[in-house]
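Pasting as-is:
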Amino acid sequence: MEFALPDGRIVEWAEYGDPAGVPVVYLHGTPGSRLTHPDDEALVGVRLITMDRPGYGRSIPVRLPTLLGVADGVGALMTSLDIERFGVIGFSGGAPYAVACGARLRQRLTGVVAVGFTGPYRELHTVHGRQRFLAWIGRTVPGLGRRYVTRAAAWYATDPLKQHRQALDAGNDPWMQRNEESNLEGARQGSAGLVGDWLATDIHGWGFKLRDVSCRVLVWAGRDDPGRAVPDAPLIAARLPDAEVYISESAAHTPSLADWREMLIWSTKADPM
């Protein structure tokens, strides 16, 4: 389904679960599309709203992609649906956008869940040495960051399932689901969405600090996640005004069905998990 933002740009969105259920916005990983969502069994009593971020699927790209820009789009879409209060869950690359919703839309949110969340590295000081220097160069030299991420993301336009096959072949994530359709849809406009994500999270400033996210936040990570989600979780939570950490002992990067169900309930309830 199409939605026109106030600036005229089109955002494509979808919904799953129970149309009469409690509303939750789900922000897909990097890369991905609106077609990604938790298993139907986890959506009992939940009205799940998903959307393509700029450049993914059928959503029009933007020249200057930002986390808060996506948060504004979430707010506008939910207003158009006459939904005032809702939860937000962001998975992996979608987690920073979920936290941005917490900064921008905090009075409207029942809760934010950041799943497999890493960073912000500039605020957490988790990037050092050569990697830190290269990140600084990419941010400060005009156009260099965009050129770098555009080259790095080129694979997604030519082989959208490459990263997904590698994750499945590794065999270290028992809850990894086959999202071929979602990844193919995400690459409808080539690598524009992936480039936008990397620009918004790694090159451009976030536009807010973690301390600005005053709504309740659950930072979720799987114990066997091969990335920085587990060590970053307490660092992130310590900087958020109202946060808790949950480490799932039965998952790696991707949550299990039971994990999804618990997170969906948490995002819509005042009581903690």
